[in-house]
């Protein structure tokens, strides 16, 4: 239930982020017991690199607290869509925060918005949509993979988000977004291998007063076909872009400063004083530096945005 | 739900092709200037947002740089807007540019002829038709080059404007294009990430400190908090009066506006720490406001700031006089409201300061609950590097990341796809993390 609103203490059933380090965190469910593969109910013990955690012990603990592991410690954080995106069980490839932020901004999602999404995938983006549109809006999310749709539905229920989302198992390229949604959406988001096939359905789903459209495609050809279709149907403000986030790695570096001046002088015979001098001149300088990591994302996908202007007949 | 209509007092977005501008429609006599064109806005009243209007020349005055034209606006239907190429029925084009040389003689019409045409013709397509007719090289140009020529001419002579309702998306584009400094160089991708990382939504209580973004940051956050929700925002600023243009432009319902409490950083912290005492001492209402101004002024080191404070300094004093006899002043009430929210603590902190962030963070971080996001925006990396180290040393914030972005737009056309020639090189920097107990 920990996704609905900010809360202070861990309750039974919450998803909790167990934060070990920047590169190591886990989403765990705060339940004292789990059922193992043999069907037996056993105490919920979570294993980490720093030892095990008896999950029962974190129930009732304040979010943000330090919890002891058998060989170290960790912090418990309330999940946010950002943290969830980094810890969720991947069922598909997912979109990350920089792209998602741009999608939400460009689709102008705010409380009360009706958003249509396809496909649901692992629900990474869905959690952001839900945060942005609740408590007065609605997300309609579609996936053509039945098990994925079921898993997502179950996940939203456990996260306390069921009231704001409808999950459909449906092939939208062939079947569209159902007649019930005709003219209902403020925004449509597509992440499909052939977005152009779903553009006419998006056109139908958007409100007569107009709305915003976005398609995310890793390949430029998909965007190209999508844009042709959008133009044909009267969409305008068509823009394609790419957002890449760069992390700065911050370190304090200590550099030795070497003295080369003394080499110009002949070696003096007075050896001991000389060595003293050279010791004294071993100067170091400290810098607070930042650099980009060795490997960083060079491409995620092309984001294509468009506006459906008001009052375009949809006959 | 019907489309809202344009009302007096509204801020409107005027769009002419790709150019957009934010304008206050203050009275029926209001005019808007788009380059050399002056538009009378009278006829917009009560028309639905999203409508397109035709610019009809009323008079032409000689100006410093060519003729200044005054236009009345006439409502028109979308169908009047058609592609110039279709309209002109252009068929022949060249294969490449081997026969075209720039001798300045390609256009047979003189500038004065064109000026005259502008006055006589009421339609950009007619002017462009004449230009094409009198161009010696037009038909030798390649199809792509013709299209570019037409686009360029159309841009110049395009006589339609669309009136749109301001949204955060439209406003950040306008502000960033016109003067990025006025919104502290917060680019669209960075703004979108501030909203994400801060977690601002319909539930919870949020804290923002910003030192001048034309109201863009509080507007974006309040927009994400939404109408008819329970979320609240305390908006701290260093001046006497907050910059609120973007907030006003959104024309949010009153209940939503009231959930944004804008307060001066100094006076609200004083209220927070000493609130009870000053109440008992019962000082005359004018005195603290003077103290405030004295206090606020010397602490504003950058040159831009006095400017942003100046236009509004008179207003609160007027308020003082009006309300002086009646009881607590508006800013005092806001301070009380904010202090109550501060005591209850916040669900995230966003900081976009022109001042050094360290002391502000030190003052505001204790007001944030544990396990909540902190987002610090900075125009340069060095400052945030230091802040990163300082926060790390306190052990009060974890998951620290310092990031910036590349934002690249693309021209996607059949056989002509490439990144746009120019891109913005500076997204600003974000330092993000989560508070700990």
From TrEMBL, chain A:
<keyword id="KW-0819">tRNA processing</keyword>
<feature type="binding site">
    <location>
        <begin position="122"/>
        <end position="125"/>
    </location>
    <ligand>
        <name>S-adenosyl-L-methionine</name>
    </ligand>
</feature>
<feature type="binding site">
    <location>
        <position position="143"/>
    </location>
    <ligand>
        <name>S-adenosyl-L-methionine</name>
    </ligand>
</feature>
<dbReference type="InterPro" id="IPR029063">
    <property type="entry name" value="SAM-dependent_MTases_sf"/>
</dbReference>
<comment type="function">
    <text>Catalytic subunit of tRNA (adenine-N(1)-)-methyltransferase, which catalyzes the formation of N(1)-methyladenine at position 58 (m1A58) in initiator methionyl-tRNA. Catalytic subunit of mRNA N(1)-methyltransferase complex, which mediates methylation of adenosine residues at the N(1) position of a small subset of mRNAs: N(1) methylation takes place in tRNA T-loop-like structures of mRNAs and is only present at low stoichiometries.</text>
</comment>
<dbReference type="GO" id="GO:0160107">
    <property type="term" value="F:tRNA (adenine(58)-N1)-methyltransferase activity"/>
</dbReference>
<keyword id="KW-0007">Acetylation</keyword>
<feature type="region of interest" description="Disordered">
    <location>
        <begin position="266"/>
        <end position="292"/>
    </location>
</feature>
<keyword id="KW-0808">Transferase</keyword>
<dbReference type="Pfam" id="PF08704">
    <property type="entry name" value="GCD14"/>
</dbReference>
<comment type="subunit">
    <text>Heterotetramer; composed of two copies of TRMT6 and two copies of TRMT61A.</text>
</comment>
<comment type="similarity">
    <text>Belongs to the class I-like SAM-binding methyltransferase superfamily. TRM61 family.</text>
</comment>
<feature type="domain" description="tRNA (adenine(58)-N(1))-methyltransferase catalytic subunit TRM61 C-terminal">
    <location>
        <begin position="72"/>
        <end position="307"/>
    </location>
</feature>
<keyword id="KW-0539">Nucleus</keyword>
<feature type="compositionally biased region" description="Basic and acidic residues">
    <location>
        <begin position="276"/>
        <end position="286"/>
    </location>
</feature>
<protein>
    <recommendedName>
        <fullName>tRNA (adenine(58)-N(1))-methyltransferase catalytic subunit TRMT61A</fullName>
        <ecNumber>2.1.1.220</ecNumber>
    </recommendedName>
</protein>
<keyword id="KW-0949">S-adenosyl-L-methionine</keyword>
<keyword id="KW-0489">Methyltransferase</keyword>
<feature type="binding site">
    <location>
        <position position="191"/>
    </location>
    <ligand>
        <name>S-adenosyl-L-methionine</name>
    </ligand>
</feature>
<dbReference type="InterPro" id="IPR049470">
    <property type="entry name" value="TRM61_C"/>
</dbReference>
<dbReference type="GO" id="GO:0030488">
    <property type="term" value="P:tRNA methylation"/>
</dbReference>
<dbReference type="GO" id="GO:0031515">
    <property type="term" value="C:tRNA (m1A) methyltransferase complex"/>
</dbReference>
Automatic annotation (TrEMBL), chain B:
<protein>
    <recommendedName>
        <fullName>tRNA (adenine(58)-N(1))-methyltransferase non-catalytic subunit TRM6</fullName>
    </recommendedName>
</protein>
<dbReference type="Pfam" id="PF04189">
    <property type="entry name" value="Gcd10p"/>
</dbReference>
<dbReference type="InterPro" id="IPR017423">
    <property type="entry name" value="TRM6"/>
</dbReference>
<dbReference type="GO" id="GO:0031515">
    <property type="term" value="C:tRNA (m1A) methyltransferase complex"/>
</dbReference>
<keyword id="KW-0539">Nucleus</keyword>
<keyword id="KW-0819">tRNA processing</keyword>
<dbReference type="InterPro" id="IPR029063">
    <property type="entry name" value="SAM-dependent_MTases_sf"/>
</dbReference>
<dbReference type="GO" id="GO:0030488">
    <property type="term" value="P:tRNA methylation"/>
</dbReference>
<feature type="region of interest" description="Disordered">
    <location>
        <begin position="276"/>
        <end position="328"/>
    </location>
</feature>
<comment type="similarity">
    <text>Belongs to the TRM6/GCD10 family.</text>
</comment>
<dbReference type="GO" id="GO:0005634">
    <property type="term" value="C:nucleus"/>
</dbReference>
């Amino acid at each position: 239930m920990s996704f609905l609103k900010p809360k202070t203490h861990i309750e039974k059933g919450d998803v909790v982020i167990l934060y070990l380090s920047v590169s190591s965190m886990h989403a765990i469910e705060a339940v004292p017991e789990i059922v193992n593969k043999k069907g037996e109910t056993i105490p919920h013990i979570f294993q980490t690199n720093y030892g095990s955690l008896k999950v029962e012990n974190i129930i009732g603990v304040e979010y943000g607290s330090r919890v002891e592991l058998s060989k170290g410690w960790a912090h418990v954080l309330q999940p946010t869509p950002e943290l969830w995106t980094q810890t969720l069980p991947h069922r598909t490839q997912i979109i990350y925060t920089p792209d998602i932020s741009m999608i939400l901004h460009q689709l102008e999602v705010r409380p009360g918005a009706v958003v249509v999404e396809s496909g649901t995938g692992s629900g990474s983006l869905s959690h952001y949509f839900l945060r942005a549109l609740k408590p007065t809006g609605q997300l309609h999310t579609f996936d053509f993979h039945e098990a994925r749709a079921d898993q997502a539905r179950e996940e939203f229920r456990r996260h306390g988000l069921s009231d704001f989302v409808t999950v459909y198992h449906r092939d939208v390229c062939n079947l569209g977004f159902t007649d019930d949604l005709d003219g209902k959406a403020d925004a449509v988001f597509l992440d499909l291998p052939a977005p152009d096939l779903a553009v006419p359905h998006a056109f139908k789903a958007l409100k007569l007063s107009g709305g915003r459209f976005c398609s995310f495609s890793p390949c430029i050809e998909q965007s190209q076909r999508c844009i042709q279709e959008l133009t044909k149907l009267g969409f305008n403000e068509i823009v394609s872009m790419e957002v890449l986030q760069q992390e700065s790695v911050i370190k304090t570096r200590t550099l030795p400063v070497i003295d080369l001046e003394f080499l110009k002088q002949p070696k003096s015979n007075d050896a001991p004083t000389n060595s003293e001098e050279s010791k004294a001149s071993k100067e170091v300088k400290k810098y607070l530096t930042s650099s980009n990591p060795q490997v960083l994302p060079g491409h995620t996908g092309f984001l294509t945005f468009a506006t459906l202007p008001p009052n375009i007949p949809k006959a | 739900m019907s489309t809202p209509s344009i009302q007096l007092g509204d801020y409107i977005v005027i769009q002419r092709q790709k150019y957009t501008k934010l304008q206050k429609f203050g009275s029926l006599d209001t005019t808007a200037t788009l380059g050399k064109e002056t538009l009378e806005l009278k006829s917009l009243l009560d028309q639905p947002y999203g409508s397109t209007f035709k610019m009809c020349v009323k008079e032409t005055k000689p100006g410093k740089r060519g003729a200044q034209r005054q236009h009345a606006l006439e409502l028109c239907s979308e169908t009047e807007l058609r592609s110039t190429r279709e309209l002109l029925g252009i068929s022949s084009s060249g294969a490449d540019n081997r026969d075209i040389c720039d001798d300045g003689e390609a256009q047979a019409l003189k500038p004065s002829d064109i000026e005259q045409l502008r006055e006589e013709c009421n339609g950009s397509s007619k002017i462009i038709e004449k230009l094409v007719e009198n161009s010696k090289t037009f038909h030798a140009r390649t199809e792509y080059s013709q299209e570019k020529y037409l686009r360029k001419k159309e841009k110049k002579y395009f006589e339609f404007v669309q009136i749109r309702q301001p949204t955060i998306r439209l406003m950040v584009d306008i502000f960033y294009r016109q003067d990025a400094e006025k919104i502290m160089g917060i680019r669209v991708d960075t703004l979108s990430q501030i909203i994400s990382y801060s977690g601002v939504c319909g539930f919870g209580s949020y804290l923002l400190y910003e030192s001048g973004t034309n109201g863009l940051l509080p507007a974006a956050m309040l927009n994400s908090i939404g109408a008819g929700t329970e979320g609240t925002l305390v908006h701290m600023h260093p001046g006497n009066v907050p910059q609120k243009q973007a907030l006003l432009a959104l024309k949010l319902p009153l209940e939503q506006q009231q959930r944004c409490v804008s307060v001066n950083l100094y006076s609200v912290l004083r209220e927070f720490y000493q609130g009870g005492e000053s109440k008992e001492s019962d000082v005359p209402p004018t005195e603290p406001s003077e103290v405030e101004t004295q206090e606020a002024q010397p602490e504003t080191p950058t040159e831009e700031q006095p400017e942003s404070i100046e236009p509004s300094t008179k207003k609160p004093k007027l308020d003082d006089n009006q309300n002086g006899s009646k009881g607590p002043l508006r800013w005092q009430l806001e301070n009380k409201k904010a202090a109550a929210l501060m005591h209850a603590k916040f669900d995230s902190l966003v900081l976009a300061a022109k001042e050094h962030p360290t002391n502000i963070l030190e003052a505001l971080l204790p007001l944030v609950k544990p396990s909540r996001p902190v987002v610090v925006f900075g125009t340069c990396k060095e400052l945030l590097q230091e802040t990163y180290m300082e926060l790390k040393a306190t052990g009060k914030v974890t998951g620290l990341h310092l990031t910036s972005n590349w934002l690249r737009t693309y021209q996607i056309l059949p056989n002509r796809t490439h990144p746009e020639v120019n891109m913005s090189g500076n997204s600003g920097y974000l330092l993000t993390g989560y508070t700990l107990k």
